[in-house]
Amino acid sequence: MVLSASHAGGGFATGNQENTYFVCSGWAGLLSLALSMAILTGIIAIAMRLYNKYDLHSYKELFEKLYHPFDKLELVFELFFYPKWARMPPLL
Question: 88 to each of 30, 53, 91, how far by Cα in Å?
Fold first, then answer.
């Protein structure tokens, strides 16, 4: 559950949402949590290998490499990534 909470962030880290969603489903819920975190860990490991193999310096470069045969598909990353940061309040 620590990996799941660290992935999802502060609201999830209290454990209440995990309890409601996964634990209440019994063993199937706990197994689905473990499976989803294993899949996420595998995807992150593959992304890190690509990041190092091609000497990439940003997430944008990583997604350009991932979407390579379909170069315009990289705009999907731009569409969803940058508006999220634009809505965040300033830290100071």
Answer: 33, 32, 9
